[in-house]
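Before a computer can learn anything about folding, someone has to put a protein's shape into writing. The three-dimensional part falls to structure tokens, numbers that each stand for a local backbone shape. The protein below has been through that process, and both of its lines are reproduced in full.
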Amino acid sequence: MSRPAPSPIYTLRGAGGPLNTLHFSCHGKDTPLLFSGSGKGVIHIWNLNSRRAEKIVEGHSGSSVIWVSTLQSTDALISQGRDMQVCLWDLREGRSEVVDTVWTGSVGFSQCSLLETSHGNYLLAFAGQQTEEVRHGYIKIIELPSKTPVCTLVPDTKLGMVMCIRLWQPDFGAGPLLLAGYEDGSLLLWDVTQRSKLSHAKAHPEPVMCLTFDTKRLRGISGSSEKKLSSWKVDRQNNLQLQDCVKLVNPGVSQLCIRDDSKLLASAGWDHRVRLFGWKKLRPLAVLQYHTDMVQSVAFSDHQDPRQRLLAAGSKDQRISLWSIYNEGADTG
């Protein structure tokens, strides 16, 4: 049975639009930060000590911001908007300048994926731009900061649009791999270096709305508009293998997130709720009820001290809720 839900320890208001994306930057910092991107094209940088917005930046011409992240080596911010651009920001010493942009040409909701390949060098993956590329699920990968094209990944069968993307670097094998969820409910595993498909699994009858992947355990989970989550793993031969399904009370999941210690899974529900599961056995742990509209994003903080870890949820109701939960070595199962 799920435990009774706690209350948020605090909430952040004033985003001025639906919250599409959240990203923490707390590790080794005196001032822990939370970045949020809204449907009104605004990025808020929240100071978690003062619980207020430290800075508000706009760089996507009022278009919805659908993804934000930080470049670990340089502390720069990177954001993606539905204005078909990815922006790279310099936030050092109080600045908030766009120092470079990447034209993706993609107006969809598929979030980019970023992978650091060496100090200061990254791969950026995003959905294809031309109508034909979008319809056939093309994925483009470039290097940053050079913006040199690396490859385009093209499915050999009709899978529809690419819905979600996740780049990762395995501990064994040569180069980076990429997981992608498609409109027809398929998951594909790609070898970026060889530009080839390694495995294909039909995880859902509906479009894959979100996926997340545990690179330590080589396990992942995906969600769609159905009343279930589908879990799967990547074996040593790089085959996708479908595993258990998790039944949900209500249909629709916007985002999934696994905590860094591989103990907790959080889901952002269309039913206004955040659900927590033990990642090991996918046991339901808690249902977090606070928001009055669809929850569109969830993120776990990267605090060095596990007791300080937070879960953030962003909603269409324009509020961010922050929760302190399962931080003291509780049995998550």
